[in-house]
Amino acid sequence: MPDHRLLRITPETHRVAIDLVYATDRNLTGKPIYKTAHCLLLAPAEAALKKAVELAANIGVTLKIFDAYRPPQAQQVLWDFLPDPTYIADLKRGSNHSRGTAIDLTLVDAHGHDLDMGTGFDEMSIASEHFHPGLPEHVQRNRTLLLGVMHGAGFTHIPSEWWHYELPGSRTLELIDNADSGPLRLM
Predict the structure, then answer these.
(1) Do the annotations mark residue 111 as ligand-binding?
(2) Measured distance CA(43)–CA(10) in Å, rounded
(3) What is the pLDDT of residues 122-171, one digit of tens each?
(4) 161 catalytic residue (yes or no)
(5) Residue 138 annotated as binding?
(6) Residue 164, annotated ligand binder?
């Protein structure tokens, strides 16, 4: 039986910046979805994140996490707001965020500034595609840098969102319903 233990990620324990936008109104719905901002990942994803942190540190950048584990109920809120499988996982299929194996993030420079990725997090448009043509060279470089760090740590990407990474083969895992019993609670 797989380990469904969600591990807490903090700046102190993992040397990352955390800005869980779904605990704020700075997300695509315009309102908070989470009551509390706890960053959680399944143990294998947490181990891969640690590797990504090391790879990023080797090139002088830090990872900044926007979202990690997402209860299925939060996925429902997002789907109800934008029922587009290009950007939001269909509830029949389930999101790897709800399996604890997906993470949304960016890179931060030594001064604490987000690297320019050309679009904001959760901008559901074709310009958010990893390899969208016509973006400035420095944006392409930054996206490729993030891609290299995350692939080097064992994550894979989806084409439509430069910020989204997940463990390969995660779709075979069950969804983890932690909305009511765990530290991450919904609004």
Answers:
(1) no
(2) 14
(3) 999 999 999 999 899 999 999 999 999 999 999 999 999 999 999 999 99
(4) yes
(5) no
(6) yes
Q: Assess if residue 58 is contained within a domain.
A: yes
First-to-last CA distance in the chain?
31
Q: What is the CATH number of the domain that holds 158?
A: 3.30.1380.10
Q: Tokens at residue 177, please? A: 């319903």
Residue 110's domain spans which residues?
Answer: 6-172
The total of structural domains in the chain comes to 1
Among the options 46, 54, 129, 161, which is catalytic? 161
Residue 144: inside a domain, yes or no?
Answer: yes
Return the structure tokens found at 73. Answer: 């109920």
pLDDT tens-digit map of 54-108: 999 999 999 999 999 999 999 999 999 999 998 998 878 889 999 999 999 999 9
Alpha helices in the chain (DSSP H): 11-14, 43-58, 72-81, 137-152
